[in-house]
Design brief:
By secondary structure, the protein is α+β, with helices and mostly antiparallel strands. Among the domains are: 108 residues, no CATH class; 25 residues. The protein is 42% helix and 21% strand. Strands 1, 2, 3, 4, 5, 6, 11, 12, 13 and 14 form a ten-stranded mixed sheet that branches. A two-stranded antiparallel ribbon has the order 7-10. Strand 11 and strand 12 form a beta hairpin. Helix 4 crosses helix 5 and helix 7 packs parallel to helix 15. The protein is globular. The protein starts with a helix and ends with a helix.
């Protein structure tokens, strides 16, 4: 269908180019070719399956499990299953290569934040690696779930997943769980690590590889750990850790010692008395300021913030001076402890504290837009492979947005026409929609659809027969 001149003009003024859109499929192939060698093994070159898997993640709208991605991208299901679950290509080598490309790109060189967060997936049983009864943050309750710990690299709205680790609950490492560990292919040298320890391990990796970030931010699950904040301080990493409202702090440096009037054997705080962080904001000498942090699509992000120097006490009796940053939003306050230098401005403190929004946005996109919600596999290798290909898809979206923003500028008149200070950037959903138009998924013929239904019926019948046999044997 030929596009009308007026429509063409409107498309161009929004920084879009039809030829670039039409060649998005070619761009994806070219992008993938940079990383194809990391998906080859010594005996086989199945790297094309990686392209089809990423392509399916980006173009399909639902049911993005391994088998369905294979069907939709015309890869035999068995081949796609083997590529994700059993093929020995290194997910970690692919992730490291993507990280180096991100570094070389330069888009994150100034003002970037490294955001530590987790995401949970509900599971029906304990067959999947790391699955167990544990806290599911997405549902806000304890249930049967699998938890991944992730790092997002963000520079304002530009963000990409950059690393991740699956959390393995401690009971998986019990002697009686050895058979279960072997079944899912958990590496023999893997040892129990808390989510906080996994997060710190990833942060160290990023620092060692030279990933550009100015600070790390995390939510209360990680922020309640003084150990993580101390590790960041030792490594000269600025850290912003959300903490619960009942976190205790001191307004002046506490005196530590053994009380003379008591028969105490251990040192404790002699003075002054601690305060909860939610009490600090109510003090008359806590100075609040209204700040405009950044323009956003909903207008200017204007917040009421306060910050003051406080002291916290470690379990070993050590005393640390830190920032307490308080942000007031409608109906709630949030509290953050930071090891930022004492001369850091309130604007910087508030801006970096507030960057965690982009981690939540990145996790949501990876779940809903890139299909991690639909992923179904039991083995550790499958989880790692899916993680690497999700990071690749996330970086493809970010790289496409960066390239188009450079090549196809938006008409400045749009700002005046809409009377806004910022125009919305392309979303992950926007790029996916354009890719689907440029590279539509094949439509099944009636015969192909019927054959697929017959196959499903056959599989279900075989499964029922197998269950009946097992029942009669018992």
């Amino acid at each position: 269908m030929e596009i009308q001149p007026k429509a063409q003009e409107t498309i161009n003024e929004w920084g879009l180019d039809l030829k670039a859109i039409e060649s998005l499929g070619t761009r994806l192939e070219s992008f993938w070719s940079v990383y194809a060698r990391y998906m080859r093994t010594q005996t086989r070159d199945t790297s094309t399956y990686g392209l089809q898997y990423v392509s399916g993640m980006l173009r399909m709208e639902s049911k993005r499990n391994i088998s369905n991605i294979g069907r939709q991208t015309q890869v035999p299901e068995q081949n796609m299953q083997h590529f994700i679950s059993a093929s020995p290509w290194s997910a970690r080598d692919l992730i490291a290569a993507i990280q180096q490309e991100v570094i070389a790109n330069g888009a994150f060189a100034q003002g970037s934040m490294l955001l530590l967060d987790e995401s949970s997936d509900e599971k029906a049983g304990e067959e999947s690696v790391g699955a167990g009864i544990q806290y599911n943050g997405r549902h806000g309750k304890v249930d049967m779930s699998q938890v991944g710990v992730y790092l997002t690299l963000a520079n304002g709205p530009l963000c990409t997943w950059i690393d991740g680790e699956v959390f393995i609950p401690e009971k998986w490492f019990a002697a009686e769980a050895a058979a279960k560990r072997r079944k899912v292919g958990l590496p023999e040298d893997r040892q129990f690590q808390t989510k906080i320890e996994l997060g710190w391990e990833m942060i160290q990796r990023m620092q060692a590889r030279g990933l550009p970030f100015e600070a790390v931010a995390c939510d209360t699950l990680y922020g309640r750990s003084p150990w993580l904040r101390d590790q960041c301080t030792v490594a000269d990493i600025e850290c912003y850790s959300d903490v619960p409202v009942n976190t205790q702090v001191y307004l002046s440096k506490p005196e530590i010692g053994i009380p003379e009037a008591k028969q105490a054997r251990h040192e404790q705080v002699l003075s002054p008395n601690p305060m909860r962080v939610d009490q600090v904001g109510c003090l008359p000498d806590t100075i609040w300021q209204r700040l405009v942090l950044r323009p956003s699509e909903r207008g200017l992000l204007e917040v009421l913030c306060a910050a003051r120097r406080i002291w916290t006490v470690r379990d070993d009796g050590g005393v640390v001076e830190e920032w307490l940053i308080i942000r007031q939003d409608p109906g709630r306050h949030t509290y953050t402890l930071s090891n930022a230098p004492a001369n850091t401005s309130l604007m910087t403190l508030a801006t970096r504290k507030s960057a965690r929004y982009f981690a939540e946005r990145g996790n949501q996109d990876s779940k809903s837009e890139l299909g991690s919600d639909d992923f179904q596999a039991t083995k550790f290798r499958a989880w790692e492979h899916h993680l690497a290909l999700t990071i690749l898809a996330s970086w493809f979206i970010a790289d496409t947005k960066l390239e188009w923003a450079t090549l196809y500028t938006r008409d400045p008149a749009l700002y005046e026409r809409y009377q806004v200070e910022i125009l919305p950037s392309l979303s992950v959903a926007n790029v996916r929609e354009l890719l689907r138009a440029a590279l539509p998924l094949p439509q099944l013929s009636p015969a192909q659809a019927a054959s697929l239904v017959v196959k499903h019926l056959d599989n279900r019948t075989r499964s029922r027969k197998s269950r009946l046999r097992t029942r009669f044997r018992t």
